[in-house]
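Question (not urgent): is this output format expected?
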Amino acid sequence: MGFLLAKILLLLVAAAVCGALFAWWWFRRHYEDVTVEYTRSREEWAAWRQDFEERLAARPPVDLEPLAGELQRRLDELERRIGAMDLAPTEKRLMAIEHALFPVQTRIDQLESAVRALSMPSPPAVDLSAVLERLDALQSRLQNPPAPKVAVRAGSRNLLTHAALGKPDDLTQIRGVPKVLERTLHKVGVFYFWQIAEWSPEDVKYVDGKLASFRGSIERDDWVTQANELAAAPTAAHRPAEH
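Got this back:
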């Protein structure tokens, strides 16, 4: 293994030496001294510039005297023609316009004085305290709406005619209350855990008499105790305040 590595290292060294020799030979063959070419270019540019400046200086100066004389002649002619024009009608017309506008200016001044002389009476003080009180009362009622009233069925203590607080509680969470019994309880007027939690023995006896084939389930499964625990849950509906 060491012999093989030595051979590879020797080959690498030989390749590096051959590459260096080839590069030296190529640069020696193709090397050009650009200094001579740069010097020759600068000399040619300096010679061309000097020749151009000499030719430019040898040109005769431009005589602008004829052009200046013609320009002065035209200016004199224009001034003469303007001086010969009769501007009296134009001046009379401008004076007539000024005289015609004088009454208008006078009328505008009079209107301005009349407007400045106007005095607006101060508005009477309006007592808005009663309106503000009513608005505050309405805002308070909007922010704190009254709780819905409970419609209790006649002849009962807390059996409701409908779900007074919107969505009823899930009564099937009470052990021993299947879905079919929940629908029966809704017909009887039981929608919330807090109703069952408030039942007295007389209420239990009254509701039990309306459960048909499920009679005895209220005491057997202890609905009142279960309802007390379920009514304390955050998701359970709370008993509305009485008015």
